[in-house]
Amino acid sequence: MAAASSSDSEGDRAESSEASSKWLDAHYDPMANIHTFSACLVLADLHGDGEYKLAVGDLGPSGRQPCLKVLKGPTVLAESALPALPAAAAAFLMGQHEPRTPALALASGPCVYVYKNLRPYFKFSLPQLPPNPLEQDLWNQAKEDQIDHLTLKEMLEGIREKAEVPLSVQSLRFLQLELSEMEAFVNQHKSKPIKRQAVITTMTTLKKNMADEDAMSCLVLGTENKELLVLDPEAFTILAKMSLPGVPVFLEVSGQFDVAFRLAAACRNGNIYILRRDCKRPKYCIELSTQPVGLVLAHKVLVVGSTQDNLHGFTHKGKRLWTVHMPAAILTMNLLEQRSRGLQAVMAGLANGEVRIYHDKALLNVIRTPDAVTSLCFGRYGREDNTLIVTTRGGGLIIKILKRTAVFAEGAGEVGPPPAQAMKLNVPRKTRLYVDQTLREREAGTAMHRTFQTDLYLLRLRAARAYVRALESSLNPVSATAREPLKLHAVVQGLGPTFKLTLHLQNTSTARPILGLLVCFLYNEVLYALPRAFFKVPLLVPGLNYPLETFVESLSDKGISDIIKVLVLREGQSAPLLSAHINMPVQPAQACGK
């Protein structure tokens, strides 16, 4: 009976959690064998029949060949092999003619494969790059049998380590071979020309001349040789070429190519570069402390995920708006756009199996999955407008549908402004005194500002004079630099003519000891004599008070006193770290003498 009651309670809890969730569990297949990332997922009406399909660029792990998969619902509709690993996938309209069926573009290696109605339509290849001249000369010598394969190997390894121009694929494959296989490889490939071609690292779409949803779009490619290319959607020619200081890995664009557009590129050097139309070089740069793992544009805010498990929000000019810390490592990111409610949010897939949805820094929703999330995609799937596609590390496929009654409460998550900030303040009514003061400020604003500036300058002058008096009287001299936190206090003892001078020196830092200090005395040699004008200070341990003693002998028999200046310096530096003025006491004239 107890076991039955416990199982009933667990079932009730599961039903209550499912009822309170904003998502419907449409499908879950842990053995779907889909291995990809967010850039290779795209939802599009590939046949123009209103039935949206899911196109996946599968990486093909465990020795399998990479392929393009097209899913309709939970089943695989079509599958075709790819010659290289996919880098990104996108759906775009190539023209204005009917029927308005979008094409599918898949970037793989140095090529972009374009499909229409799931049939190969066009293949765009990146232009070839000039090969390394030293590498070309070595292969020409090998062609004429002037060098053997071992010499070729040593020379190519030297070029790979020092040359700025990278080696071709042919040379890199040659260096990976065993010694027994190199000679056959050279004989097979020495007559072939050396080709060096860049590889596509990322891809996205940019509207051509209209912002409509069914308008033509250009393809924007990021390449391994630190360039961005904009392709014409009809002729597939290069419309624009832009250079970057790093290799782009994530792209976000806004605007239209023929009007004005803004492009953000996150690169491998840890920076994000902002480019505009007619700019060959980046206009703004956002420097990150770590590598980016995702880039999403939501409501004109660039949301960047970093390897420090943080989400950062930036403006297009590089100003940081907010930062949110994640409970686990960020594996993937994508945009959630609910057009019926005008909502744009950021989805972050974490290593602990969570999918967190943020609007700015406000947490809207948390979805828990049975495995770490590797890719996310939100949009219309089948005939459902708001569908979430999730793939997991083990190759699983999760499909969730957002309930039509679900509403994301902005600011109701764990992070964000408190609810009291949105409460309307009870502002009191304007009184007669307030109105008179406002009129006075309008009429005599210039005079009031001048009076305020005069009082401010007087306040600064009094503060400066008080500071100078404190330094001259040596009330409590403290070093002004944070690198050398020191405190000095001087005590004079005796009636004369010999006085005992004790300097109390203290290291006020919390944990760092200070070494290599000197104490120097500046005084009138006609009036006073000291055994040593300067001496070294021992190691100062933080928090301890070190008394440093010396004797001062008065040489005047007229009862005259003067100031002795104490300087604390660093060895090898002329500027003092700390200074103090000691007012010596006046002794009777009969007590003076040598």
TrEMBL record:
SUPFAM superfamilies: Quinoprotein alcohol dehydrogenase-like. Transmembrane segments: none annotated. It holds the Pfam family GAE_BBS1. Residues 23-276 form the Bardet-Biedl syndrome 1 N-terminal domain. It comes from the Eukaryota. Residues 486-587 form the Bardet-Biedl syndrome 1 protein GAE domain. InterPro entries: BBS1, BBS1_N, GAE_BBS1, Quinoprotein_ADH-like_sf. This is BBSome complex member BBS1 isoform X3. It comes from Equus przewalskii (Przewalski's horse). The lineage of its organism: Eukaryota, Metazoa, Chordata, Craniata, Vertebrata.
